[in-house]
Amino acid sequence: MLRFTCRPKARSRTTSPSNFGIALCLALALALGAGCSRLSASHLRQQPVQAQQEQHVEGRFFRFDYTVREVPTGLEVHGRAVPLAGALPAWADSVDSLSIIAYLCDADGAVLETAQTGLSPQTLPAEGLPFSLVFKRQDGVASHLAFGYRCMFVPSRPPAAPASGSGSMIAGQYVFFASEQAALVR
Asked: Angle 185-142-66 (CA atoms, 0-180°, nearest 5)?
C-alpha cells in the first residue's frame, strides 16, 4: 500500500515579484500624491504687501504690527507681536516658547515663501515682542502677507486659582498653547 502525504510548501522569505510590484506602485502613488499638496494661508488674515507703511494683522491670540521694507535681496519685515489680553488666560503673562512665521502669498493665499523666527522665554511686555524676518526676492508675484505662530504661554508665578478651561497643568506648570499656521492642502 502506498501512502502519499502532503507537506505545505515552504514559504520564501524573499518578496515575490507580484508583492514587490504592488509595494512599488503604492510607494509611487504616495510620492505623487504628496507632490500635489501645497501650503495655503487662505484661512489666515492677510494684508497686501505695502512697503514703508505701518500695517496690522490680527490673529486669535496676537496682533502683528509691522512694516515691510524692500531691499536689493528681497523683503524685510520688522514689527511687534502684541498679545491680545482678552483672548488669553489672566495668568498667562510670559512665553516659554514662541515661533513667529510670516507667509508671503499670492492673492489666493497660496504660500510662495515663509520666514520664521524663534523668541526666547520672557515676560510679555505690553507693547509686544519685537521680531524681524527676511524674504528672498519673489519677482513681484507675492502680493499678500499673513502671520502664524506657535506659542506656549506660562505664568511668571503660579496662579492662586486659575479658571476652569484656561489651560493645562504639565509637570506642575500651568501652560496655555496657542497656534495659527498655514495648512497643507491638495
From this structure: 100
**Interstrand relation of 173-180 and 168-170 (parallel, antiparallel or unpaired):** antiparallel
Model confidence, pTM: 0.74
- Beta pairing, strands 94-105 & 122-123: antiparallel
Options 2.60.40, 2.40.50, 3.20.20, 2.50.20; CATH for 40-185 is 2.60.40
119 class by beta-carbon count within 10 Å (0-12 exposed, 13-18 middle, 19+ buried):
middle
Q: Considering the chain, what percentage of its residues have pLDDT values greater than 70?
A: 71
Helix (H, G, I), strand (E, B) or coil at 27: helix
Rounded Cα distance, 38 and 186, in Å: 6
pLDDT tens digits for range 86-143: 899 988 999 999 999 999 999 899 999 999 999 999 999 989 999 999 998 666 667 8
User: How far is it, in rounded angstroms, from Cα 140 to Cα 137?
Assistant: 8
C-alpha cell at 22: 504592488
